[in-house]
TrEMBL record:
This is Methylthioribose-1-phosphate isomerase. The record marks C162 as: Transition state stabilizer. The keyword Transport does not apply. Substrate binds at R53, G54, A55, R90, Q201, N252, K253. It comes from Roseospirillum parvum. It is an enzyme of class 5 (isomerase). Keywords: Amino-acid biosynthesis, Isomerase, Methionine biosynthesis. PANTHER family: METHYLTHIORIBOSE-1-PHOSPHATE ISOMERASE (PTHR43475). Catalyzes the interconversion of methylthioribose-1-phosphate (MTR-1-P) into methylthioribulose-1-phosphate (MTRu-1-P). Also catalyzes the interconversion of 5-deoxyribose 1-phosphate and 5-deoxyribulose 1-phosphate. Part of a bifunctional DHAP-shunt salvage pathway for SAM by-products. It catalyses: 5-(methylsulfanyl)-alpha-D-ribose 1-phosphate = 5-(methylsulfanyl)-D-ribulose 1-phosphate; 5-deoxy-alpha-D-ribose 1-phosphate = 5-deoxy-D-ribulose 1-phosphate.
Amino acid sequence: MNINGTPYRTIWTAADGRTVQIIDQTRLPHDLVIVDLTGLTEAARAIKDMLIRGAPLIGATAAYGMALAMAEDTSDRHLDTAATTLLATRPTAVNLRWGVERLKALLAPLPEAERLEAAYAEAARVADEDVAMCAGLGEHGLKLIRAIHQRKGGPVNILTHCNAGWLATVDWGTATAPIYKAFDAGIPIHVWVDETRPRNQGFNLTAFELGQHGVPHTCIVDNAGGHLMQHGQVDMVLVGTDRTTARGDVCNKIGTYLKALAAHDNGVPFYVALPGPTIDWTVDDGVAEIPIEERDPAEVTHITGALAEGPTATVRLTPAMSPAANPAFDVTPARLVSGLITERGVAEASRAGLAALYPEAAHGEDKGGAA
């Protein structure tokens, strides 16, 4: 996708063929900063501190993190250290485990002398596959948007939550891929972008990238979604997911569950877009089994934005003596999901629906996420 007319992916290798470069998403939308990752520690910090985020991009960064580790030391011991270090960064997105385990399974049987080149080549394949999967699911989601447009005869109003855009993947995005495909196809669309507290990823990231692509959109507060649905101003809700269970529960940014409840109450279709590696075939009950990341309370108590005169500043929102809790995700049960948009088609949010699209994974051949 483009930033100021220049095409970018969210992660790539520099001219030296070894340094990995990323966009520091904590600085958007006010500053575009490119960060160099030169070793395992920097890759782990980029994931943990959310310089990059979004399940597919976390998986790709984990793969490149394994490659950076091999540039430091190709021994078995360091391979194990790299896997342990990366897996400890963030607990919720299953793509993290998938990316690490994919690289480790490839590298472990190889002679040490062959691991470095193999690691970088495989990480590049992970990134390219993610782009292809997101483009593919975009085509399937486009059919849903086109059908709404043909039935309605007017612009399609889509509500999204958090950032499941190209900034959350290597390119195209998950929830935004159908939106970009529809816009590029000339279908009139409009996107309601909610703020997504506490990190404001809707405002900071989704609105930023939609604006760069020219997609009509309006920023709203998180609590406005239900009101808009009650008044017929939302034709579909389209979100991403950090982990989808084998039976179709979806774990996404905190607040997604409330959007799903409002959509269900108002008869608004609620779709979730995801590439295959985001499915965790080892988990059934998302509410009971998915670990929910508890992040720094300062994300709740403080906020960063641009001052009127230009520079950014961080200010406190809450009383100094008031504690804060910060669960980063919630789980939406499959019963509230109208369909799961994948690179292989649109599945019913159920074990049978997913198994029909991913039979090799559902039958136990791939417990780390389907490719």
